[in-house]
């Protein structure tokens, strides 16, 4: 794999002679930029919103960074409490998607409500936005060799620097496939949407289900609620399925009553 895209030299007077550009960081930046452009375009076209400030997107990035890192450290809190220096060693990497997600969504809801913007309509847009960032970010994981799968003798197995000489499931590519599949479903359903929030809730349920299955093939170290049975991501996904199912039923029922009036 290619965890480092390239290196370049800086003049000595800047205090650092060599700078390394990492593939994961580049993918996150590219994914964020594309997602921000899509969000602005869709908000203007679908909701008539033209006043989404750059600050809004900066704060989303910060919230996602904090949440992703916090959940990453909480996978093994004792390790980082006893060795706080490790936090700095992996500061630029090591994120938990659900950590970022459950931090960003409450912030988005608060921000939109404060500015009296249709929250559910915007969440439908953010469902696709999230997939864009997530899929490109997972490709960065593949390039970096993190978030790999369990050992396999299958022909599609990949040897990463951190797993050499053992072939493992390329779970990063599996997840990209799942995300693209969900994206196609959402794009199709967007033309037949019955109520605002429908796409977002479907995304929550589909991704949580797909991620739950994907966890069975993961081979990297991560936390468990029930050791080797229920991972943190599976538990969060299960909670999201229950919550999303409740609100889907609620909004769907409300929509039917409105149509019958």
Indicate the topology:
Blueprint: E1 4-9, E2 18-22, H1 23-47, H2 54-74, H3 77-82, H4 85-89, H5 97-114, H6 119-144, H7 171-190, H8 198-214, E3 224-226, E4 230-231, H9 232-260
Antiparallel strand pairs: 1-2, 3-4
Task: Provide a brief overview of the structure.
The chain is mainly alpha-helical and 261 residues long. The protein has nine helices and four strands; from the N terminus they run ββααααααααββα. It has one domain.
Overall description:
Helix 8 packs antiparallel against helix 9 (232-260). Strand 3 (224-226) and strand 4 form a beta hairpin. This protein has helices at 23-47, 54-74, 77-82, 85-89, 97-114, 119-144, 171-190, 198-214, 232-260, and strands at residues 4-9, 18-22, 224-226, 230-231. It has one domain. The protein is mainly alpha-helical. The chain has a two-stranded antiparallel sheet. Helix content is 64%, strand content 6%. It is globular.
């Amino acid at each position: 794999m290619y965890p480092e895209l390239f290196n370049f030299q800086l003049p000595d007077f800047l205090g650092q002679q060599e700078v390394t550009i990492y593939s994961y960081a580049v993918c996150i930046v590219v994914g964020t930029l594309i997602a921000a452009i899509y969000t602005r375009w869709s908000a203007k076209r679908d909701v008539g919103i033209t006043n989404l400030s750059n600050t809004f997107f900066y704060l989303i990035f910060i919230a996602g960074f904090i949440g992703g890192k916090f959940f990453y450290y909480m996978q093994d809190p004792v390790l980082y409490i006893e060795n706080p220096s490790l936090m700095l060693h992996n500061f630029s990497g090591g994120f938990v998607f659900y950590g970022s997600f459950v931090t960003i969504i409450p912030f988005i809801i608060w921000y939109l409500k404060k500015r009296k913007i249709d929250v559910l309509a915007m969440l439908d847009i953010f469902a696709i936005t999230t997939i864009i960032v997530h899929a490109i970010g997972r490709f960065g994981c593949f390039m970096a060799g993190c978030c790999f799968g369990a050992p396999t003798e299958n022909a599609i197995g990949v040897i990463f620097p951190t797993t050499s000489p053992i072939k493992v499931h390329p779970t990063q590519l599996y997840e990209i496939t799942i995300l693209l599949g969900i994206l196609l479903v959402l794009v199709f359903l967007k033309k037949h949407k019955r109520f605002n929030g429908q796409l977002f809730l479907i995304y929550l349920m589909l991704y949580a289900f797909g991620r739950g299955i994907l966890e069975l093939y993961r081979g990297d170290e991560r936390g468990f609620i029930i050791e080797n049975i229920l991972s943190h991501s599976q538990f969060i996904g299960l909670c999201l399925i229950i919550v999303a199912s409740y609100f889907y039923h609620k909004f769907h029922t409300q929509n039917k009553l409105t149509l019958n009036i």
